[in-house]
Automatic annotation (TrEMBL):
Annotated protein name in UniProt: Endonuclease/Exonuclease/phosphatase family protein
GO molecular function: 3'-5'-RNA exonuclease activity; endonuclease activity
UniProt keyword Ribonucleoprotein, yes or no: no
SUPFAM superfamilies per the UniProt record, alphabetical: DNase I-like
Organism: Novipirellula artificiosorum
PANTHER family, A to Z: CARBON CATABOLITE REPRESSOR PROTEIN 4, ENDONUCLEASE_EXONUCLEASE_PHOSPHATASE DOMAIN-CONTAINING PROTEIN
Domain Endonuclease/exonuclease/phosphatase: 32-282
Pfam families linked to this entry: Exo_endo_phos (PF03372)
The keyword Hydrolase belongs to this UniProt entry's keyword annotation: yes
Leader sequence residues: 1-26
Keywords: Endonuclease, Exonuclease, Hydrolase, Nuclease, Signal
Lineage top rank: taxon: Bacteria
């Protein structure tokens, strides 16, 4: 066997590996939603500087194609961008719509996806106004989104990837935010298959959950990936860890929702831990999808 043939074979294998990823299927789409815990919090031994490498390792181990992050400050986004050079990041600060303040930054694999459009809206009655607040929200909240074309998928349908973070105190704000997300998904996702990630600060039996996932006349329903793939009576659904890897019981407040021509293969809570600690005060949640073939 010639050296030239071996070299070409190796290069082809590397190219296919980069397109397919660790999953082994070119059409597979690996999703992760991860609340990073804002990097200036006074968290002592769990401060960002002491766990940031662990965060990057956890993301790298799962190798998501699409990653939605919450509580992300600009220097955290920049750190991950340097650690993840194969990804493009999109995010603006929630207070002014610039690069300062907390973001719902999202990441996607640059070679796999063509970026068609990007944008942001605020969870308020005036969603186009940066920093706007409504209802009983305690903090400014927002959603960042991108419209992508998957270069690997056989489907011709674009993907609308949305990432958000609901208020932690305002119950009406969470409910109204869920309703707004459905409306925006209709507006922005016409002709798209949709992926929505986020920290919703609400349990799976809450009004915001029902507002997002209940079937309504004339609307296509969102699907809760975790609830679809896991037994209804399964215990240990907590996604807020409090930095303790032993945390199992509690509410599942971080969700990955999908809508459109998807086949759902797997959904899970990533309970990665090291010496009893987790990389953030939330567990990442994950899902594996494939996009149905479509010429539309």
């Amino acid at each position: 066997m010639s050296k030239t043939f071996c070299l070409h074979t190796t290069m082809l294998a590397l190219l296919l590996s980069s397109l397919i990823g660790s999953s082994g299927s070119a059409n597979e789409l690996r999703i992760m939603s991860f609340n990073l815990r804002y990097g200036t919090a006074n968290d002592g031994e769990n401060h960002w500087d002491k766990r940031k490498e662990f965060v990057a390792e956890t993301i790298h181990a799962y190798a998501p194609d699409l990653l939605g992050t919450q509580e992300t400050l600009e220097f955290q986004k920049e750190f991950l961008s340097k650690k993840m050079p194969a990804y493009t990041s999109v995010g603006v600060g929630r207070d002014r719509g610039d690069q300062s303040g907390e973001m719902t930054a999202l990441f996607f694999k640059t070679e796999r996806f063509e970026l068609l459009e990007e944008g942001h809206f605020w969870l308020s009655e005036t969603p186009r106004i940066p920093g706007s607040k409504s209802w009983d929200t305690s903090l400014t909240r927002m959603c960042s989104w991108v419209r992508l074309q998957d270069r690997v998928s056989e489907s011709k349908r674009p993907i609308l990837f949305m990432n958000t973070h609901f208020d932690h105190r305002g119950s009406d704000a969470r409910l109204q935010s869920a309703r707004l997300l459905r409306k925006k998904a209709d507006e922005l996702g016409d002709g798209c298959d949709i992926v929505l990630t986020g920290d919703f600060n609400a349990a799976a039996d809450s009004e915001p959950y029902r507002a997002l996932f209940s079937e309504l006349p004339g609307e296509t329903v969102f699907l809760d990936t975790y609830a679809t793939k896991r037994p209804a009576d399964e215990s240990g659904e907590a996604t807020f860890s409090g930095f303790k890897s032993s945390t199992l019981e509690g509410s599942r407040i971080d969700w990955i929702a999908i809508r459109g021509s998807w086949t759902l293969q797997e959904a899970a809570i990533d309970r990665t831990g090291k010496e009893g600690r987790t990389p953030s005060d939330h567990y990442p949640v994950t899902a594996i999808l494939s996009q149905a073939n479509s010429t539309r």
